[in-house]
Amino acid sequence: MSSVPELETTTIEALPGPDGWPLLGNYLQIDFREFHRQLERWSERYGPTYRFKLGPQVFVVTSDIEAGSVLLRERPELFSRRRALEQIFDELGFNGVFSADGDDWRRQRRIVITALNSARLHQFYAKMLDTTHRLRRRWESAAEAGSAVDLCADLMRYTVDITTQLAFGIDFNTLETDGPVIQHDLDKVFPMLNRRLGAPFPYWRLFRLGKDRELDAAVGAIRARITEIIGECRARIARNPVLLQEPENFLEAMIAAKEAENVPFSDDDIIANVFTLLLAGEDTTANTLAWAIKYFTDYPAFVARMRTEVDQVLGESVVPPTHDTAARLGLIEAFANETMRLKPVAPINVFEAKVDVDVCGLRVPAGTALILLTRRIATSAEHFSHPTEFDLDRWLDRSPGSDRVHNQKAFTPFGGGPRFCPGRNLALLEIKMVLAMLLRNFDVELANDGAEVDELFAFTMSPTGLYVRFRHRA
Ligand code: HEM
User: Which of 163-167, 342-346, 395-399 has the lowest mean pLDDT?
Assistant: First the structure.
């Protein structure tokens, strides 16, 4: 048995938790569209570490910060993502760096890290600028028409356009496309993934429901598009073979590694990782931006302060003109942090024990699923003062003795340890560019006809029915 810090050993059976049904466990008590909130409510009731069951699968849920550090850090040796996730992705043909484990994961991770590093972002800045101008023009048209904008949909056009240019060297330009776009198919994947992960048994291996058939069609369409992307990339390499030695993006690097045969990548690995980056780069950043813009409508005083900063930093420009200017938008970064603390797109992080292991005194058998309640930790009074308040200044006031100090380890919107999100810097740059562009050019108000903006969990957590109206800045 492997061991990590041990206090007083206890077993999962001894943990508190909701009573369940034979065979189904707690399945009928969960609405998977708000899975994270059910887990947070149970945490209030049963304490920092409890258990529940979905069919035969036992889950341990924790909001203990020390247990969280162990889960994040001890990968890939002691913990992986859930094996069910890898199997489900494998069936769809999309088992890439997010779901892979062990040496497969290590090989893929190296290439992803290089493709998204700061030097690459610096080189890529001009394209980010163009794409941010496209979004500005789209919102200008909406402002002129006075129309309500489906905010998440527009932001996903932005994030997909950025990801495909940076990672694959291809410009989809969905921001300026009127017809069907790839997001339409990508949107079907996360909700079904969530549904299959929660299912008490893998029914889709026996029969297909309507939603499963829709997923099959969407996956077929995405796969066809990815095959085209890879074909275009191979043609680019054939025209310019130097790219095999000096790949300029993630896809070229994967193809180059396969051609050099120093890394055993298959065509399926390449397809899986193109898909993984499309998915990982789309919803996460778009939903974070959407939540931030929703908060703009709630906190006009913070908006006024950020606007002053943006006006100073941007000068005459309507978007941050250089990478360095984006780095100087400290208030926006604080606003983004506070948004991700209260509305993280990943409010939970899920693991599986690969071996029998002790986690902070809890004996965990191999195969147990463990869920870390990251939002519950980041909104606990133990780690953040006045934890439920939206407070920009908690990220700025670092003076000793301030009542705004907080425990940095309790804030993990991008995960932590060896599987920390490699897209963090890209995401933060996108967030700063879009929010600065918005503040500089537009006023924004909700256009929801009074409907509440709620949280929807579908693998990531997004705002429901978030419509806004832009006006040219007064
Ligand atoms: C605000 C935006 C984003 C948030 C909040 C976010 C959050 C996360 C989280 C929580 C994880 C799991 C980390 C862990 O297990 O420790 C993750 C993993 C990952 N993210 Fe992000 N992410 C964002 C944007 C992006 C972008 C833009 C990309 C790339 C285009 C990306 C690519 C990935 C990949 C490839 C992984 C898997 C890493 C691995 O397993 O080694 N993410 N992200």
Answer: 395-399
**pLDDT band at residue 414 using 50, 70 and 90 as cut-offs:** very high
Instruction: Assess whether the C-beta atom of 345 lies below 6 angstroms from ligand 1.
Output: yes
- Alpha carbon separation from 442 to 74, 139, 473 (Å, rounded): 45, 9, 4
Of 285, 413, 404, nearest in space to 340 by CA: 413
Write down the pLDDT at residue 366. 97
CB 164 within 8 A of CB 278: yes
Q: Are strands 357-359 and 10-11 parallel, antiparallel or unpaired?
A: unpaired
Specify whether the CB–CB gap between 470 and 444 falls below 8 A.
Answer: yes
DSSP secondary structure code for residue 406 in this structure: B
Q: Which of 108, 112, 254, 414 to mutate to test the pocket of ligand 1 (most atoms within 8 A of CB)?
A: 414
pLDDT band at residue 9, thresholds of 50, 70 and 90?
confident
- Domains of the chain: residue spans and CATH: 1-87+347-378 (3.30.43.20), 381-412 (no CATH)
4, pLDDT greater than 60: no
Other Cβ atoms within 10 Å of 458 Cβ, number? 18
Whole-angstrom distance, CA of residue 463 vs CA of residue 472: 24
Is the CB of 182 inside a 6 Å radius of any atom of ligand 1? no
